[in-house]
Amino acid sequence: MPAAWFRCRTPRPQSLVRLVCLPHAGGTASFFTEWDLGPEVEVLAAQYPGRSDRIVEPCLDSMTELAPRLAEALDPLLDRPLALFGHSMGAALAYEVARLLDRPPIHLFVSGRHAPAELVPGSLHTATDDELVADLMRLGGTEAELFATPELRNFFLPTVRADYRLAETYRWQPGPEPSCPITVLFGDSDPEVTAAQAERWRQHAVQEFAVAEFPGDHFYLAGARAAVQARIGQALRGAIVAAGR
């Protein structure tokens, strides 16, 4: 396993499928620490450069840098069927990585983000520190204590700003779509994505497509984790059966 890029709390070398989870802007692999889909699924989470135990590495602040690097890191993991789950910024990243992999994932799960071809302007990556922190607080999922002092702000905000830059400057380019089923997940009170926007992911699907709505805001995953994992597990079991494993 490419140790620098992925964290796995419970290795399952006999699992039938790997689920690789890609965090949101400013997020780390620890966001998925509690995820467990049972013995058939090995759950891994990506640790992007520039955070947590990779803090000394420079952040990658463009999709054209991060997606190929992550796809390359995933290559050794393609010895088993692979599924991708991405939340918010991680959803766009999961989509682009799925387009790059030599062996397509068996399922792509995208959460809390509008469809790639839909341009939603944003310039918060150029905003003041106060404005950037205010947006983080608006979305939830971030502890206010992390930005309570200038020292902590100076430590965490550069990484957040780099991720916002990646998310806001990302531009979809026409090309082959992921050749796997796509499931879109979102919170019914998410200020970042509506039901109509979730449905517009359909234009990127060449196989089965589904939308799953859960109670909650942009970080609905915290409160609905069991339901989300159940939905993902159901889809993966179907993919395993379809593959004859």
Structure, explained:
The chain is of the alpha/beta class and 245 residues long. It has a single domain, classed as Rossmann fold, CATH 3.40.50. It has seven helices and seven strands, in the order E-E-E-H-E-H-E-H-H-E-H-E-H-H. It has helices spanning 63-74, 89-100, 129-139, 150-169, 195-199, 220-223, 225-242; strands spanning 6-7, 17-22, 41-46, 82-87, 107-111, 182-187, 209-214. A seven-stranded mixed sheet has the order 1-3-2-4-5-6-7. Helix 5 links the parallel strand 6 and strand 7. The model has no long low-confidence stretch (mean pLDDT 91).
What would a concise description of this structure say?
With 245 residues, the chain is of the alpha/beta class.
Distance between the termini: 22 Å
Question: How many DSSP helices?
Answer: 7
The dominant shape is: globular
Strand order of the largest sheet: 1-3-2-4-5-6-7
Query: What is the tally of beta strands?
Result: 7
Provide the helix percentage.
25-40%
What Rg, in angstroms, do the CA atoms define? 17 Å
What structural class do you assign from the helix and strand content? alpha/beta
Pfam families: Thioesterase
Family: Belongs to the thioesterase family.
GO biological process, one term: lipid biosynthetic process
Protein name: Pyochelin biosynthetic protein PchC
